[in-house]
Amino acid sequence: MPKRTVGEPHSRLTRMSNRMMEAMDNDPEFQEGDKAIIFLHSETRSGIGIHGYGGGNPDMEAIADLFVHLKALFEVNGKTLTIIPLNEG
Questions:
Q1: Which of 47, 83, 84, 87 has the most CB atoms less than 10 A away?
Q2: Nearest-5° angle of CA 27, CA 31, CA 37?
Q3: For residue 7, is pLDDT > 90?
Q4: Whole domain around residue 71: which residue ranges?
Q5: Would you say residue 52 lies in a domain?
Q6: What is the count of structural domains for the chain?
Q7: In this predicted structure, what is the pLDDT of residue 47?
Q8: Which stretches of 1-89 are assigned E, i.e. beta strand?
């Protein structure tokens, strides 16, 4: 099972993601409140970075935004994304 880490990047892909987040913060068009979800994949590994998400549960806030974007991607391709919650536990 993947392990969530916070703080210093721990792999090549998460270091790359960290540099992308730093570039975002330093961009002249950056505005307070801008957020990003960065997915990186290689042939053997993957990494994700979330940036600008705060509050009590930044992961859930990022997941909600991800679903909004996935829904839009499906719709522009003539498809419908349906999310059915599963009651686990």
A1: 47
A2: 75
A3: no
A4: 12-76
A5: yes
A6: 1
A7: 85
A8: 36-41, 46-51
Q: Look at residue 7 and tell me if it is in a domain.
A: no
Residue 6 pLDDT > 80, yes or no?
no
| pLDDT attached to residue 89 | 61
Residue 89 lies in a domain: no
Residue 6 within a domain? no
Q: In the block, which residue shows the tokens 């599963």? A: 86
What single string gives the DSSP state of each residue in 40-54?
A: EE-SS-EEEEEES--
Distances (CA, A) of 62 to 1, 16, 43, 78, 89: 20, 19, 25, 25, 23
Contact of 19 with 27, CB cutoff 8 Å? no
Longest dimension (CA), the chain: 46
- Tell me the residue length of the chain: 89
